[in-house]
Amino acid sequence: MNIVTTLSVNEKKQNDLMSLFKNEAFHFFSNAVEPTGELKEADVVVTYGDDITPEMIKIAEKLKWIMVMSAGVDKLPFQEIKKRNILVTNVRGIHKIPMAEYTMGMMLQVSKHLQQVTEQEKSHEWKRLSMNELYQKNVCIIGVGAIGGQIAKLCKAFGMNTYGINTSGKEVEFVDEVGTMDRLEEFLAHADFVVSILPSTQDTKYLLTKRHFQLMQETSIFINIGRGDVIQESVLLEVLNEKLIGHAILDVFENEPLAKDHPFWGMDNVTVTPHISSITSRYLPRAFAIFEENLRTFKSGGKTLINQVNVDRGY
Amino acid sequence: MNIVTTLSVNEKKQNDLMSLFKNEAFHFFSNAVEPTGELKEADVVVTYGDDITPEMIKIAEKLKWIMVMSAGVDKLPFQEIKKRNILVTNVRGIHKIPMAEYTMGMMLQVSKHLQQVTEQEKSHEWKRLSMNELYQKNVCIIGVGAIGGQIAKLCKAFGMNTYGINTSGKEVEFVDEVGTMDRLEEFLAHADFVVSILPSTQDTKYLLTKRHFQLMQETSIFINIGRGDVIQESVLLEVLNEKLIGHAILDVFENEPLAKDHPFWGMDNVTVTPHISSITSRYLPRAFAIFEENLRTFKSGGKTLINQVNVDRGY
């Protein structure tokens, strides 16, 4: 079996994989452009999911399985994939710990004015500013699944009140109140923190509008760790220029990487991070653990791989 | 009854107090130097506890109760207080929420390289660095009481392993393993985070030595939110210059404010904060709630005030 990777895998891990799966031929690349010849023979492609074009699917005429080492699969050419009946799996589930830690880190950074504390430190200034607390604050989590549930768990430990939106409105552990989209406005109106973890789908694109931010408090903090297109960037810019809310922490954008001259970079009420909320030193080990288990199943002709993506639904 | 405050109380709160306790005479000052005349007549002094001198106790010949709006009472002139049998109460217990939040904020700031993320943001640099996780890391809490217990609670929610030192060795909720001082070295050897919350007493002064830091890992992070004199500052400086550990987060110092030319300010492996771990917008409201309840008891001749300090023990 020919396995092509389009993400960089360090030498140690390459050797691990080759010794774990002695009968398979691994072709390690660090991007999807180089391996044209190898793609033609590939049975499996391992990718972050943002580099696969419709043309590549055509070239990879033997391709049966795409292992996406990410949760977002919105960049995949689903039409071609569906036509060919190619299996798609992702690594959803491994994001919840790092992304929840990132979220709490950012909530605390803003609430505790830690950037200001750092500035004072740089000028050797001993000035006792007063911080805010997370305790008893309200958080509204839009898209409360595995990741949102982990955020809710941490928020509850901090004594926060948790509200969540999902498609079913069904109860979620650690979320005080769960509703479907029709309760979003109600939840937003009293939220101190609003966290969007929505993937990019037809239903979620531009789902948030200016009106939603008008409903929030002047001090509310918006955190986007889902996908950038949950709100039109020009609208979010308006919201922030008009200071409808207190602060936005943006890890995802409509166009990534964020252009060097984008106004978000320089705004006092915006924190920009380069789509890193899930990236920790433990990300790839966890992702490869899923890949390896799936590869064993796939080799033995097993039908149910971990985290199979519904190709019709797109997630 | 004459009540003298030596900390600034805003006008709204002054009016609240005067209307709550109509029969008492309040004398509001923002320091302990001004109210010489008033001190002579004072029955009660409300203070942060770091401004009361032996001379002031002598002047305040009617003084019966010192309400310390802080947890640390180590700066009080206990000899004079004991001689006169003056009651001392503090506000221990109200620190646990802000101090635990500060601690998690700092653990996340260092683990997630958030200062570096901010630097990149300033130069509009989209560079995806890899962060670390708190998940499954070990924390050793030296002095695990109310505050340490709250830190342990949060650490457990993050999936960390918690170890704690206290004087009894008795179990504490959310602490996986509790020991007395004789287990400190064992706990330190595998701790990723070491948090000292020790007060300053005869037993804790210079309790930590270079040897303790030699036992820690090169990557360990030391967080001091207790009192600065738990380690001699010159020794800590040596430890950090020799990079025996990864990072120190220092909120307390042997001499505060930290001198403008102190080397700690400029060190890459040190984060200095100006003794703010407990200061949030909710600090004074909580502290006054305790004072008000105690004042009611005190007025009615009640004997047991909240948080009475053992004058012999000094805490």
TrEMBL record, chains A, B:
It comes from the Bacteria. It holds the Pfam family 2-Hacid_dh_C. Residues 104-277 form the D-isomer specific 2-hydroxyacid dehydrogenase NAD-binding domain. Belongs to the D-isomer specific 2-hydroxyacid dehydrogenase family. Keywords: NAD, Oxidoreductase. This is D-2-hydroxyacid dehydrogenase. InterPro entries: D-isomer_2_OHA_DH_cat_dom, D-isomer_DH_NAD-bd, NAD(P)-bd_dom_sf. The keyword NAD applies. Residues 38-310 form the D-isomer specific 2-hydroxyacid dehydrogenase catalytic domain. The keyword Oxidoreductase applies.
